[in-house]
Write the structure tokens for this entry.
Amino acid sequence: MSTRSLPFDEARIREITREYPTPFHLYDEAGMRANARRLNAAFAWNEGFREYYAVKAAPNPHLIRLLHEEGFGCDCSSMAELVLCERLGIVGEQIMFTSNNTKGSEYRKARELGAIINLDDITHLPFLAETAGLPDLLCFRYNPGPLRAGNAIIGNPEEAKYGLTREQLFEAYQQAQQQGVSRFGLHTMVASNELNPDFFVETAQMLFQLAIDLQNSTGIRLEFVNLGGGIGIPYRPEQEPVDLERVAEGVRQRYADMIVPAGLEPLRVLMENGRCITGPYGYLITEAIHHKQIYRNYVGVDACMSNLMRPGMYGAYHHITVLGKEQAEATSTVDVVGSLCENNDKFAIQRTLPEIETGDLLVIHDAGAHGHSMGFQYNGKLRSAELLLKEDGSVQQIRRAETLDDYFATLEFPAPVAEPAEK
Ligand SMILES: *Cc1c(COP(=O)(O)O)cnc(C)c1O
């Protein structure tokens, strides 16, 4: 029996499939907006708080615009993500450019848009100066290395390719200041899909202490700290969502205990979450098209790993609801599989679900972040459509499904082989 509630029922999805064939991703506008407002409300104590949505999680202009209407900025990491924001009119310090191993052309674009540039390495300071010129406002990404344990998913900071060491950080701020930079921010990202709220409070504490140390040793005063993204979501039904109010209250207390007495107020708190913003509000809808019984029982669906690669790539759990059988008893243990010629193309492995019949519609949950965006065309698989379930209950296509013409568009074909000889 499914324990997850849905903003639609089987009848509504059947209706939608008459216009838009499966598979497709469906996003819940009302859920997304309510969640965005909740995050903003939790951090309302901090003047200047802003969430910069990690565009890579769901780079669809309709979703970005909707989140922008809720006050979010955009966290970009590539040329395409910068241009996507530009085309929406989202520019200037509404963009945080947190990239790594960055090309000069990307820094030039970020500068042209007036984005907040977050440097991933001390050598990028002269590189940026040379390729694009230094802005007034600059941010550096801190990698605490042995000073902080990462979480299981992002791994040990000492082994992560991102950011500057503590020593480099102090050096970099001073060099930047000497070269005319006058406004500063500090960033870190040490967790991914972390469900422990206290982890983020500890991250804030670490950055607040660094802000104090920086002021003491260099006189440089930060304008903001960016706690990064990484707030997890309960992919499994037995997991609890992160209590955003508890995170915000914990950060507020550290701010009151550390930043206020140090005279470093006002200090803006920023975040750049992707997963917890859109993840739970996106669903991959797919139809069961085959059954196969060999050494195990398989349910073949019309979506595959190119629509959602987290299960195949990370062994990630994604909850599945069989529409119309929400209350049915789970009696059959199956692997739910796609059509890729890869044996890790499985949405669920040995999952006990209600009896699935051909033609049943399956909802794969929590596909609203790092879902469609991680899609690929391996094996000639095409990326599916994205639909928005709007607040008024209507459905709008916000990305069409790819076609074979899209697939062939970049290929150069040689002349066809000669006609077979006449018989
Ligand atoms: C991917 C990423 C994010 C978003 O991570 P989520 O787990 O989706 O919150 C934020 N910042 C940076 C630098 C990232 O690489």
Observations:
- The mean pLDDT is 96.
- DSSP finds twelve helices and 17 strands in the chain.
- The pocket of pyridoxal-5'-phosphate is lined by residues 54, 56-57, 75, 98, 189, 192-193, 228-231, 272-275, 369 (CB under 6 Å).
